[in-house]
Amino acid sequence: MAVLQSELLLPLLLLVLFGDTAKGQRDPEVFCGACKALADELTYDIKKIGPKRTVNSGTFRLNPDGTRGKKKVPFAKSETFLTDVLEKICDRMNDYQLQDDPDTNKKIFKRYAPRKDEPIYAEYKKYFFYSDAYKPLKYACETIIEQYEDEIFSLIAQEADFLADRLCIEKSGLCQKPETHSEL
Known about the structure:
Blueprint: H1 2-22, H2 28-48, E1 54-62, E2 68-74, H3 79-88, E3 96-100, E4 107-111, H4 121-124, H5 135-157, H6 163-171
């Protein structure tokens, strides 16, 4: 009897926990917010690295003309740096909260936590803020990285301005282009 109950309870529990994801439904506001937060965090991490810091990239093999295929690349745009950043970046989604945008009346995610290099950070860390509300944002962030990792590398290598717009609107289509109203 106990085995029968556990066999019925497990599928029911899984359905409750993963019901929305099993249907393949995505909340567009969460994915758009996660994409913008991801782009914001990437831009911040890239700006922290000095432009003079470089790393050797390429191969140590000789080309047919006798030269090496090695070149110096800015460290902030290297695959090594970006891979390391992308592995940890979604953990920072806990620093964002859902707010209503007063201009558009849409829900947006805004960073509320100070960054580690800000003076108030030491005081902020004395308190513990945690909410299950960020879990969908973290999941969306991880999904975006998994699906658009090559596009992220490409945009950063091209020194794309407005990374959030390029990634979230043009490349992935996760966000809609903001409406522009012209005055008559």
